[in-house]
Specification:
With 307 residues, the protein is an alpha/beta fold. The chain has 2 domains: 8-125 and 289-300, Aspartate/ornithine carbamoyltransferase (Rossmann fold); 129-286, Aspartate/ornithine carbamoyltransferase (Rossmann fold, 3-Layer(aba) Sandwich), CATH 3.40.50.1370. Helix content is 42%, strand content 13%. The chain has 12 helices and 9 strands. A 5-stranded parallel sheet has the order 7-6-5-8-9. Strand 1, helix 2 (50-61) and strand 2 form a beta-alpha-beta unit. Helix 1 packs across helix 6, helix 6 crosses helix 7 and helix 7 runs parallel beside helix 8. The radius of gyration is 19 Å and the shape is globular. The chain binds phosphoric acid mono(formamide)ester (CP) and norvaline (NVA).
Length: 307
């Protein structure tokens, strides 16, 4: 049976820990023929810098090949049905990484594809980002379980995946969102179940200052995600008290990390210059997309990793 990665919750705590270990070992050691002869389709409905480049370079560094397919040329569900695209691509490639507006599109792709499908971001989750972020946190802090992460802002795709990843691995998660922009019940319930066995504490607050108290990590993301451009002005008003700046960061632990998946909207969710703060690890996060996804591709394409 093929195994997809559509949600962080498709993985167990043990699998996540193994991925992090494998990513660390792949970061130390080149494996230029691990995926020799393997191919990956990158099927994107939205723009990307990090996800596209890190997947392409990951395949190249492992001896495989990636093919990028832009929205204009495929016309997923427009030029032809999603199911047909899935069945055709399955005849050419060994894996599909797809970035879609609707999560339902991903589910349909996965249903009709005979090769594994990776969620490269949908409106519901961004698992590759969250898993890479765990790698960054582990590298900087030497552990996951027992840390506290404060997420400030929109209960969006990045927040959803991060909450699931935290609750699976024992990280406490405190989120501050304005009313109507909280993380959805469905994800909270799922995370609460994971937290029961991992020991994470999950807290929802409305005040950013309360959320960052005792935090080891302060994390934020854009107020209007891709596809929500028409709501940008309304969201700027709703989120105006949710900017992360050096004053807010100073209320967290003295050695707290500042994290953001990028792209960032300077002057909105972050104060100008914050990416360059000594506590910011945002470019390590971006780099770790490459290493974590190399480990993920190796796992998805069922190649045992040695060394
Ligand atoms: N963080 C992230 O997924 O970036 P891109 O949208 O540039 O891929
Ligand atoms: N929440 C953002 C993340 C971008 C990586 C978006 O979906 O646009």
């Amino acid at each position: 049976m093929k195994k997809d990665l559509l949600s962080v919750s498709d993985l167990s705590q043990k699998e996540i820990e193994q991925l992090i270990e494998q990513a660390l070992s792949m970061k130390r050691k080149d494996m230029p023929s691990l995926l020799s002869g393997k191919t990956l389709a990158l099927l994107f409905e939205k723009p990307s810098l990090r996800t596209r480049v890190s997947f392409e370079i990951a395949m190249q560094q492992l001896g495989g090949h990636a093919v990028y397919l832009s929205p204009e040329e495929v016309g997923l569900g427009k030029r032809e049905p999603i199911a047909d695209v899935a069945r055709v691509l399955s005849r050419y490639v060994d894996c599909i990484a797809a970035r879609t507006f609707s999560h339902q599109t991903l589910l349909t792709l996965a249903k009709y594809s005979s090769v594994p499908v990776i969620n490269a971001l949908s409106d519901w989750e961004h698992p590759c980002q969250a898993l890479s972020d765990l790698l960054t946190i582990y590298e900087k802090k030497g552990k996951l379980s027992g840390l506290t992460l404060a997420f400030i802002g929109d209960g969006n795709n990045v927040a959803n995946s991060l909450l699931l990843a935290a609750s699976l691995t024992g990280i406490n998660f405190c989120v501050a969102s304005p009313p109507s922009y909280e993380i959805k019940k469905e994800i909270l319930n799922q995370a609460q179940k994971f937290a029961t066995s991992s020991g994470s504490q999950i807290k929802l607050v409305s005040e950013p200052r309360e959320a960052v108290k005792n935090a080891d990590i302060v994390y934020t993301d854009v107020w209007a995600s891709m596809g929500q451009e028409a709501e940008a002005e309304k969201r700027r008003l709703a989120f105006s008290h949710y900017q992360v700046d050096d004053k807010l960061l100073a209320l967290a632990k003295g050695d707290a990390l500042f994290m953001h998946p990028l792209p960032a909207h300077h002057g909105e969710e972050i104060s100008p210059g914050l990416l360059g703060d000594p506590q910011s690890v945002v470019f390590d996060q971006a780099e770790n997309r490459l290493h974590l996804q190399k480990a993920l591709l190796a796992k998805m394409l069922r190649q045992p990793i040695r060394g």
